[in-house]
Amino acid sequence: MTEKSDQAYKSIGEVAKLLNLVNKKNGNLSTHTIRYWEKEFKNIKPRILSGRRRYYDNVEIEKLKKIKFLLKTKGLTIKGAKYFLDNDNSLDLDETSNHSINTLNKEILKKKINKISKLIKNIKIRK
């Protein structure tokens, strides 16, 4: 059997295997997860050929890797991942992306801490 070129289109099963999307209970590939992400993230556009088979090029696979990273590794919600992808076109799966996400989280935490500090000050003043 010959190996596929890295540039060749990959089937949904191959992409699920590449992304390590495996059902922990039965060990089957979770291709339904990729189809769900396609519905939620409109910028994922696989080639759909005869028989409604989906094929993904490297650009689409990179998008799926980013989505998996944001959802599974960083724990963002679908809405949060959409926001991040829409507002940060330079996202890479290296330390830069971790820094970007951490910076985003730090800003949110700073705002919450400031709010809490103000509430505590107001409580102390009223006592």
Give a structural overview.
This protein is mainly alpha-helical and 127 residues long. The protein has a domain at 1-74: Multidrug-efflux Transporter Regulator, Chain: A, Domain 2. The chain has 5 helices and 3 strands; from the N terminus they run E-H-H-E-E-H-H-H. A 3-stranded antiparallel β-sheet has the order 1-3-2. A hairpin with a 3-residue loop joins strand 2 and strand 3 (53-56). The longest helix is centred in the C-terminal third of the chain and has 32 residues, at 95-126. The chain is elongated.
Keywords:
mainly alpha, single chain, Multidrug-efflux Transporter Regulator, Chain: A, Domain 2, 3-stranded antiparallel beta sheet, 3 strands, 127 residues
Structure, briefly:
The protein has 127 residues and is mainly α.
Number of helices: 5
- Given helix and strand content, the structural type is mainly alpha
Give the CATH topology of one domain.
Multidrug-efflux Transporter Regulator, Chain: A, Domain 2
Reading off the top of the CATH hierarchy, the class of one domain is best stated as: Mainly Alpha
Oligomer: single chain
Give me the CATH architecture of one domain, please. Orthogonal Bundle
Distance between the termini: 79 Å
Q: Please report the total strand number as a whole number.
A: 3
Helix-strand string: EHHEEHHH
* Low-confidence runs: 93-97
The largest sheet has its strands arranged as 1-3-2
How much strand content do the residues show? 5-15%
Biggest β-sheet strands, sense, barrel:
3 strands, antiparallel
Helix content: 55-70%
